Amino acid sequence: MIAVIALIAGVALGVVLEPTVPIGLQPYLPIAVVAALDAVFGGIRARLDGIFDDKQFVISFVSNVLVAGLIVYLGDQLGVGGQLSTGVVVVLGVRIFGNVAAIRRHLFRA
Amino acid sequence: MSGPAGRRYSEELFADFFRAPLDSGYARAAQRRATAGPPPRWQVFGGRGGRAVALAAIGFLFAVAYHHAVAAEPGTSKARRDLVADVRSRQQQTDDLRRRADALRDQVAKARDEALVDSGEAARLRELAAGAGLGKVTGDGVVVRLADAPPQIDPVTGKQSADNPGIVLDRDLQDIANGLWLAGAEAVAVNGQRLAGTSTIRSAGGVILVDFRPVTGPYEVAAIGPPNITDAFNASATAKRFRRYVETYRMQFGAKARENLTLSAAPDPSLHYARPPSPSASPSSPSSPSSPSSPSSQSSPNPSRSGGR
Predict the structure, then answer these.
(1) Is residue A38 situated within a structural domain?
(2) Better pLDDT: A80 or A70
(3) Which of A103, B77, B157, B210 shows the greatest Cβ crowding within 10 Å of its Cβ?
């Protein structure tokens, strides 16, 4: 309940404030979103498994976003361009897919 | 961790990754909770607060990313809309200027006629201007109407097929114009655009341009000529070819005689070699007109020498 309210509050805050993303941070935005999605689906799955842990969730979210951002930054500095970001997206995508599949098994028993 | 176990882990990292996408930290935390008992009260509330803050941050991130993705899109479409409006207004401007040029040209012609009223030169000049496409002409003639074939619709999928062989190309309009000249036309216009000696009919990006001005279908090629021009054109090879296109590609084509056609003048051709005499120089001085034409007169022997051999 708290979680849903907090999520809605965050969305509302973003809609109301309409912050402009600084140019330097723009390449990190999509990666950060994917990392956050991974944390969210991981949390939902853990909740359904009955092993949800607040500390683990917060740390996984923060570290996911930071590490993803770091890898994109590293790719930029190394001159491999978007290839490292592609790697991040693939890895996180696989995780999201696996977690969503587990959630589906929980919800539909199939 | 022992050596073999570490190697096994690294080898199966990917397989493990696909099999168990959940952070193992969740399971470890649950284990810890099971062994150590329920956490103290402050930790529960702190955890809830942290969770709420993290989720609010995630929601904020989503909203910002969505806003960013949506805001980036109208920028391009807005630029495109501005460009379209720009093109429209410039076209309007061109039309206005052309109308003004037509009016001024009429004035010039009238003044010239008045100045030359004594000699027979005025009629001859008018004749020449009409023939060269530089004067408005009226008379009887023929109008050739040409339109794209309707797009072919696949009977199975109901979709329009991408390539339509019955589309009117620039080549078709060129052929029709040439056919009309051949049939004895004295003046030809495509969708109201008069053709002069240096006019072009081309296509650029799927649009047909007559003298660099776009024309759209259905195309009407009007020609003024002798009374038998309609029959002459209908009997020509060009007309026969287009009637075959009608049968095979369902292109729309028809030539009808029409009376009292009015074809406006073509835009003044830009002068490539000739130059209007400057008012300061005396008109009899031969050096000023010859100097711009000297490169062409020097270069002209070259092709004739190589061609004549």
Answers:
(1) yes
(2) A70
(3) B210
CATH code of residue B207: 3.30.70.1880
A44 within some domain? yes
Would an 8 Å CB–CB cutoff place B48 in contact with chain A? yes
**Distance in Å, alpha carbon of A50 to nearest chain B alpha carbon:** 8
Contact A8 B59 (CB under 8 A): yes
Tens place of pLDDT per residue across chain B (309 aa): 444 444 555 556 566 666 666 777 788 888 888 887 777 778 778 888 888 888 888 888 888 888 887 766 666 777 888 889 999 999 899 889 988 988 888 888 888 888 887 777 777 887 888 778 877 888 899 999 988 888 777 777 767 766 777 888 888 889 999 999 998 888 899 988 888 888 888 888 888 888 888 888 789 999 998 888 888 988 889 899 999 988 888 888 888 888 888 888 887 777 778 887 877 654 444 444 444 444 444 433 333 333 333
Beta bridge pairs of residue B138? B262
Q: How many distinct structural domains can be found in chain A?
A: 1
Give whole-number Cα distances, B248 to B165, B206, B240, B243, B251, in Å.
9, 22, 13, 9, 8
Q: Show the domain range for A33.
A: 24-108
Q: How many CB atoms lie within 10 A of CB B257?
A: 16
Residue B238 lies in a domain: yes
Inspect the interface and report whether the beta carbons of A7 and B55 lie closer than 8 Å.
Answer: yes
Strand order in the sheet with B213-215: B201-204, B207-210, B213-215
Residue A3 lies in a domain: no
Chain A's closest residue to B53, CA to CA, is: A6
From B44's Cα to the closest Cα of chain A, the distance in A is 8
Q: At residue B16, what is the residue type?
A: D
**Considering CB atoms only, which of B18, B50, B64 is closest to A94?**
B18
Same-domain pairing of B27 and B141: no
Query: Which pLDDT score, from 0 to 100, does residue B284 have?
Result: 47
Q: Compute the count of residue pairs across chains A and B with CB atoms less than 8 Å apart.
A: 135
CA distance A67 to A75: 12
Cβ–Cβ contact B47 with A under 8 A: yes
Looking at the structure, tell me whether residues B158 and B259 fall in a common domain: yes
- Find, in chain B, the residue whose alpha carbon is nearest to that of A41: B22
Q: CB distance from B7 to chain A under 8 Å?
A: no
pLDDT 10s digits, B160-217: 766 777 888 888 889 999 999 998 888 899 988 888 888 888 888 888 888 888 888 7
Q: Is the peptide bond before B218 cis (omega within 30 degrees of 0)?
A: yes
- Say how far apart CA B185 and CA B202 lie, in whole Å: 21
Flag whether the ipTM exceeds 0.90.
Answer: no
Find the domain containing B13 and state its range: 3-63
Q: State how many domains chain B has.
A: 2
Tell whether A96 is covered by a domain.
Answer: yes
Domain edge (last residue) among B63, B83, B114: B63
B142/A34 Cα distance (integer angstroms): 67
Do A13 and B55 lie within an 8 Å CB cutoff?
A: no
